[in-house]
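Weekly modeling sync, notes
Attendees: S.R. (lead), two postdocs, one rotation student

Agenda item 3: backlog of single-chain predictions. S.R. asked that every request posted to the team notebook include the full sequence so nobody has to chase files. The rotation student volunteered to paste the first one in as an example of the format we agreed on. Action items at the bottom.

Example entry:
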Amino acid sequence: MFRAIHPAVVLGIALTILPNALCQLTVPGSGAGSADTAQADLDRGMAKWMSHNMTNYNYRYKADCPMWPCDDPLDSRPKNVQVRDGTIASVELAYNWDDGKLSQEHIDAVKTPEDLYAVVQTAIDGNADTIQTQYDKNYGHPTYVYIDYSDDDKTDPRYRFSIETLIDLRVTESRQTELDTHRALWDSHRAMDYDYYYRRSCFCMYDYTRQFEVQVRNDTVDAAFVAEDGTAAPDDMLENWLPTIDGIFDQIQSAIDRSAYSMTIRYNETYGYPMSVSVDFEQMMADEELYVSASGLVILATEPVEDMVVVDNEEAKDTTESRQAELDLNRGLWDSHQAMDYNYYYQRSCFCMYDYRKHFEVQVRNHTVDAAFAVEDGSPAPDDMLESWLPTIDGIFDQIQSAIDRSAVSMMIQYNDTYGYPMSVSVDYIEMIADEELYVNANGLEILATEPAGSDPVVQVFEQQESKSVNSAVPLADATSGSHLVGFRTTWTVAFAAFAFGVAGIM
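Predicted structure, as returned to the notebook:
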């Protein structure tokens, strides 16, 4: 038999649930505790945003009319915004079903993340009755802002803003470089006839979500069979649903061109083809995502190579000299900029733990990697990565030099035309050995400080290393999102105590 629940348990549960319910209804802005929390959240969001030094980006913006009904319906329509060099460059309607035209007044009313920080700060300073904010966990920009200066006055305007699907163009460049590197690797194998397993997830009929063995002949899908029972795929699937490997690459390229909100791609390190594709095109829209998996590749025939020439030692020597000349030229260009402090994005592919294959924003100070943060979630890289895995730009040059010295069987290097640093590095040291290749992407360089005249960079590096051993960098706390309620922690404490007392009474 169950015993009656002690009243203290009921009280504890009620006190636990009530604050959450209140957070969804209203967020009083008055009171020292609430204002302090709102200010702390604002400061953390701003600090995280500023740490990324983002000047070129796109985002979706929406602002509700302060008073209803709207005088102009276009005021509250979602807008696509492009920012270049820190300034709004263009504003367009995200959905233009009625050929609406934005006036200069509409464009001037659009707010940047910096503008929204100022809006929140003004509300805090003005003791607004209600302040609701949410900040992006990666970049710290405001994703949602709601302000009501007077809850009791129903005629008082209420302000609601949102920023969705913010895309850092440096990340877009990184995605493109990664795609180009792996597509070149795939093309180098000249696969013409091959089989592979393919599956796509979607909100669609079950037959379309099954795993298929796809047979590609002469670069065209010739046949496909359900993996679990051998059923042949119908013709419409062969034509419109089941792609070649090149078709999957095309899907990724389309996602990059459309500035998809988030993308996670895992490529095969031997052949370069995409093994896992996860794309969310629109942050706030459902059933427009792309989820694809490809595996089990078997190459049956390759494109014939015409006029194949056996490379003799003299030609190999010429190749080595050409690689060295190209490296020296671009390293000289890089050195001419005398970069001392800079940030850049780095990613290395390997047969290793996922944490090592993440896309990092690397912060170099005084020629030494000082800190790094994973792009997808903002988490700081551990010390062992800073010391032995994440290089400076000069470190990437050293890796290329090592490959030349070791007479790597194949090398494909793409250098930045302006600064000379390596943007894409693909090296196969030994043709018949797997998992010894080097695949590196670097982009989004931002130089913050250069060498002072007459300085010795070597001495500065040693001084920086000694300084780091004493003072390790402490990353910014994650920007928080949510509501600010006076006495929230106190309520939770009372709830827990009541619950514990009730449990004791039951026992």
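Discussion: group reviewed the output briefly. The longest strand covers residues 290-302.
Action items: rotation student to repeat for the remaining queue; S.R. to check formatting next week.
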